[in-house]
């Protein structure tokens, strides 16, 4: 049984004060939730504040939105996995479509980062997903296969099991137009099938696959009721603590 994982990707939003208020409100609503894994992914500048505001609520984990693959050195403006671990960060989102499209990240770059994250015991959330044009051309499986095989190259079975995949169709991100539960389940089935080919059945069964793309309180439960949708990566709706808490509760309802 895979534990559902719901992550809040705040992107380039949230000051320290806003972050502290968000966590205070979330904890009032959810408490230190244990049946669903909750991850808050603030901008780097608010990571320490989020950890401080979480206090003893140690079941809620903190993530980062990016990192560089080198361990240390002359890489002005970059952050290493070790520096993130020093801030008690557990997860790192890698290969988000905004990084792929706006900052030119390739599968090879994503793969270097994924391997460096594992080396530092940081758990990667690896994003994959097709554009609308690729979907319209019937290339969803081809694109997912290329992204998965490239981004997850040379990982051990243990590392794969500790990797979270986020299926995020680019056309659904920030557009208000989510994939239907059937479209998402179809993509997740294919992702799990590809993981079987990359590793083996047992490994593929253990990997959690989140759906991301316009997840809201109104659509979260139906999406997460699908057999291969193991949680959500939430952008816009994660900026409001009440909406985010509703999405976490939708995941919890699927556990119960
Ligand atoms: C995201 O950026 O990962 C995302 C899924 O955004 P949104 O929920 O706003 O579509």
Considering the chains and any ligands shown, give keywords for the structure.
single chain, 256 residues, alpha/beta, 12 helices, binds phosphoenolpyruvate
Characterize the structure shown:
With 256 residues, this protein is an alpha/beta fold. It has one domain (5-255): Aldolase class I (TIM Barrel, Alpha-Beta Barrel). It contains 12 helices and 8 strands. It has helices at 16-30, 47-54, 81-86, 97-102, 107-119, 132-136, 140-151, 157-161, 181-198, 201-206, 217-224, 241-255, and strands at residues 5-9, 37-41, 60-64, 91-94, 123-128, 164-167, 208-212, 231-234. An 8-stranded parallel barrel has the order 1-2-3-4-5-6-7-8, surrounded by 6 helices. Helix 1 runs parallel beside helix 2 (47-54), helix 5 (107-119) crosses helix 7 and helix 11 runs parallel beside helix 12. The two termini are 12 Å apart. The mean pLDDT is 97. Residues 9, 168, 173-174, 212-215, 233-237 line the site of phosphoenolpyruvate.
In a few lines, what is going on in this structure?
This protein has helices spanning 16-30, 47-54, 81-86, 97-102, 107-119, 132-136, 140-151, 157-161, 181-198, 201-206, 217-224, 241-255; strands spanning 5-9, 37-41, 60-64, 91-94, 123-128, 164-167, 208-212, 231-234. With 256 residues, the chain is α/β, with parallel strands linked by helices.
Alpha-beta classification: alpha/beta
Q: Helical region count?
A: 12
Radius of gyration: 17 Å
**Major sheet:** 8 strands, parallel, barrel
Distance between the termini: 12 Å
CATH architecture: Alpha-Beta Barrel
Hetero groups in this structure are: phosphoenolpyruvate
Estimate the strand proportion.
5-15%
Strand order of the largest sheet: 1-2-3-4-5-6-7-8
Binned, the helix content reads 40-55%
Number of individual domains: 1
CATH superfamily: Aldolase class I
The count of DSSP E runs of length 2 or more, i.e. the number of strands, is: 8
Please write the CATH class name: Alpha Beta
Mean residue pLDDT: 97
Q: Give the CA-based shape.
A: globular
Determine the CATH topology: TIM Barrel
> What is the ordering of alpha helices and beta strands?
EHEHEHEHHEHHHEHHEHEH
Catalogue the unreliable spans.
none
């Amino acid at each position: 049984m895979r534990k559902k994982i719901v992550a809040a990707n705040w992107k380039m939003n949230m000051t320290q004060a806003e972050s502290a208020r968000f966590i205070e409100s979330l904890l009032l609503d959810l408490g230190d939730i244990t049946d669903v894994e909750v991850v808050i992914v603030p901008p780097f500048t608010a990571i320490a504040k989020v950890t401080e505001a979480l206090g003893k609520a140690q079941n809620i984990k903190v993530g980062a939105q990016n990192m560089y693959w080198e361990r240390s050195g002359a890489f002005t403006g970059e952050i290493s996995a070790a520096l993130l671990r020093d801030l008690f960060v557990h997860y790192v989102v890698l290969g988000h479509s905004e990084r792929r499209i706006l900052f030119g990240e390739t599968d090879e770059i994503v793969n270097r980062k994924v391997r460096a994250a594992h080396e530092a015991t940081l758990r990667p959330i690896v994003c994959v997903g097709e554009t609308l044009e690729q979907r319209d051309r019937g290339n969803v499986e081809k694109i997912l296969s290329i992204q998965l095989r490239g981004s997850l190259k040379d990982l051990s079975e243990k590392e794969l099991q500790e990797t979270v995949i986020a299926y995020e169709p680019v056309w659904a991100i920030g557009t208000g137009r989510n994939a239907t539960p059937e479209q998402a389940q179809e993509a997740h089935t294919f992702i799990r099938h590809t993981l079987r080919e990359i590793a083996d059945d047992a490994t593929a069964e253990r990997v959690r696959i989140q759906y991301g793309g316009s997840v809201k309180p109104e659509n979260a439960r139906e999406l997460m009721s699908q057999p291969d949708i193991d949680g959500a990566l939430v952008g816009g709706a994660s900026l409001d603590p009440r909406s985010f808490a509703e999405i976490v509760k939708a995941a919890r309802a699927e556990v119960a």
